[in-house]
Automatic annotation (TrEMBL):
It comes from Syntrophotalea acetylenica. PANTHER family: ALKALINE PHOSPHATASE LIKE PROTEIN (PTHR42709), DEDA FAMILY PROTEIN (PTHR42709:SF11). The keyword Transmembrane applies. The chain crosses the membrane at residues 20-45, 57-80, 111-134, 141-162, 174-193. It comes from the Bacteria. Pfam families: VTT_dom. InterPro entries: DedA_domain, VTT_dom. One of its GO terms (cellular component) is plasma membrane. Keywords: Membrane, Transmembrane, Transmembrane helix. This is Cytochrome B. Residues 40-160 form the VTT domain.
Length: 197
């Protein structure tokens, strides 16, 4: 936990440098396949520092994350036989048992597995690499990634743009609950629309 806390603080420090935007893109890119700290941390800090740039920052985070997800897919699709042991040993949250569960989820829900992981605190990297390992349709994977990651980052940027510091305290305290509640609302909306169409 101390290591993750130091990593968290290191990520936040990038917001106070001229390299905040490239760092945001690279963090979002890396988090999609192996890095443990989500880009929301830096996105929040940058947006609080410059609210007028909120949606530009969300665009950068979304682009980095979706491209990183494509790389995660490529790792699973083409290099898992070589890199699998490394991920199991050195990348937090990867396990052989977890991958069996991911395969079961993909066989039942496909699009929704990617969308849910992209929008909620569920580790997105497990799903991006798993999608490649289990050869999920790449177009569907990219669409679900684009929708979910953009929705997540633009929602955070909008909240900070509108309400600033109070939102930061609220989001940091209740982030997991908020994303799961919004996820349920989104799925409910899609199911309702599909039921009547």
């Amino acid at each position: 936990m101390k290591f993750l806390r130091r990593l968290y603080d290191w990520v936040l420090r990038w917001a106070d440098t001229p390299y905040g935007l490239p760092a945001l893109f690279l963090l979002a890119f890396a988090e999609s396949s192996f890095f443990p700290i989500p880009p929301d941390v830096l996105l929040l800090a940058l947006t609080l520092g410059k609210p007028s740039g909120a949606f530009r920052f969300a665009t950068i985070a979304s682009a980095g994350s979706v491209l990183g997800g494509a790389v995660g897919y490529a790792i699973g699709w083409g290099f898992w036989d070589v890199l699998g042991a490394f991920f199991y040993q050195y990348v937090p949250m990867f396990s052989a048992e977890g991958f069996v569960r991911v395969q079961e989820l993909f066989s039942q829900y496909n699009f929704w597995v990617v969308f849910t992981a992209g929008f909620t605190p569920i580790p997105y990297k497990i799903i991006t690499i798993g999608a490649g390992v289990f050869q999920i349709n790449f177009g569907m994977f990219m669409l679900a990634s684009l929708l979910s990651r953009s929705l997540r980052f633009f929602l955070l940027a909008l909240l900070v743009f509108l309400w600033g510091q109070p939102v930061r305290r609220f989001v940091e305290t209740y982030f997991n609950y908020l994303t799961f509640a919004l996820m349920i609302l989104c799925i409910g909306g899609f199911l309702l629309v599909s039921h009547f169409t």
